[in-house]
């Protein structure tokens, strides 16, 4: 290595030197010139026995003729090389300043970090570097006190928007360097960029603050456990309300000590299972509070890692109110089911009781109808009344059938043998049996064959077309459209009636449901569409309604072959 001016440090990084804590320390005036004060008061960096500039190769050429003076020069050069090599391994920027705070030298890290060159740095006052980025009043006071007052400082924070590298946060450390040969003094200034560290710390602090706020304000009780011992290490305020114990009383205890897991042996096994599986959940767990009150809680526990250690977080939710509501709902549902059953039983009994007199009335009406039609002198008015009597009696008969079918649906399927049936012909047959004096019904379809119980499907078509007639104005047209799809047959019954409100569309197939508009203007029991839905579903099909407020369409889709026959 070629020699240079002996008081100039080569480019390198700050040597790793352990320094005592504190922002300012004074070196004792009576400290030895070439040594380090004993104790923790200060640290002093001294380069011994520097002489006039001598190149390393000159001392090497001297060989064994080296005099004691030359030996001291070589020792000084070697010491300088040693210090320079150490500094070259460091990554922090380092400046060497003269007594008047001019830059004597800077290491490579300084030039790299601050993106500058030696010509813009050396022999300049530190306050002149860059655009005055180091001209900080507090820093000036500290640096100006290093030499005359034997001070040093650690971790002086500088937060500044540097021209080339943007905003940075730096920590500055300064030490006095004493040369024993000519008593010249220098200042070694080391700079550490902690911007990223501060950002990470800030993120962690923000996350910790958010977590702590959530933890403290959560409306679930939360316990944090040591995953190895099972002891409670933290508890949020809400858990105190659930357990009836203060946080101080909970810390250090285990779950089975605070009334959560009463069966200690069994739940110690559960605790081991939790540690292995990482997750345990109890939807209903009995909890006994300090006052002896037993309540039900929802218990969810997870294992996760924090700082290299596994912890267990237990979330505990009091579900007493929810369980009360659930029980109340269950009781109300049971009560409604009983009422529905009683209603079914009543309607079924009424239908059965009506069958006998209705059979007699129907027979007499048909007899009267035949008698009048056989008499030439019968007037048209009488014939019309006789025909109407038969039609209304038949309608009552169908109503009793519907009531009985609805009650039987609850207990078992009443679908008979399913055979390939021409649904177009079936629809035409249904339409021909209806009173079409005030409406027009058109069957639109060429071929639609499916395996169905023909009588039950006739019942569906009668209900759908009868409803369309009931809700359509006089003179309106009802269209029964049928078509074959890939694996299904589709039936669409469309009318020009009052339509179905959007709020009623999903309810009209419920038993006894009648929309507000329908119940106010039309009679009925709300069983017909319910029965249609059940029959269609028994055929593994689907039924739904569509309406835009002007008329409605009921759609049925049936598989060509039933699932069990496939």
Description:
The protein folds into four domains: 168 residues, PAS domain (Beta-Lactamase), CATH 3.30.450; 101 residues, Beta-Lactamase; 86 residues, Orthogonal Bundle (Helix Hairpins), CATH 1.10.287; 147 residues, Heat Shock Protein 90, CATH 3.30.565. The chain contains 14 helices and 19 strands. Strands 1, 2, 3, 4, 5, 6 and 7 form a seven-stranded mixed β-sheet that branches. The N terminus and C terminus are likely disordered. It is elongated and about 160 Å long. By secondary structure, the protein is of the alpha+beta class. Helix 9 runs antiparallel to helix 10, helix 10 crosses helix 14 and helix 12 packs antiparallel against helix 14. It starts with 24 loop residues before the first strand and ends in a 7-residue tail after the last strand.
Query: Do you know the CATH topology of the largest domain?
Result: Beta-Lactamase
By secondary-structure content and strand pairing, the structural class works out as alpha+beta
Counting structural domains, the number is 4
State the helicity in percent bands: 25-40%
Q: What is the beta-strand fraction?
A: 15-25%
Shape: elongated
Low-confidence stretches: 1-66, 562-566
Rg (CA only)? 49 Å
The largest sheet, given as strand count, sense and whether it forms a barrel, is: 7 strands, mixed
CATH top level of the largest domain is: Alpha Beta
Question: How far apart lie the N and C ends?
Answer: 96 Å
Number of strands: 19
Q: What is the name of the CATH superfamily of the largest domain?
A: PAS domain
What's the CATH architecture of the largest domain?
2-Layer Sandwich
Discrete helix count: 14
* Average pLDDT number: 75
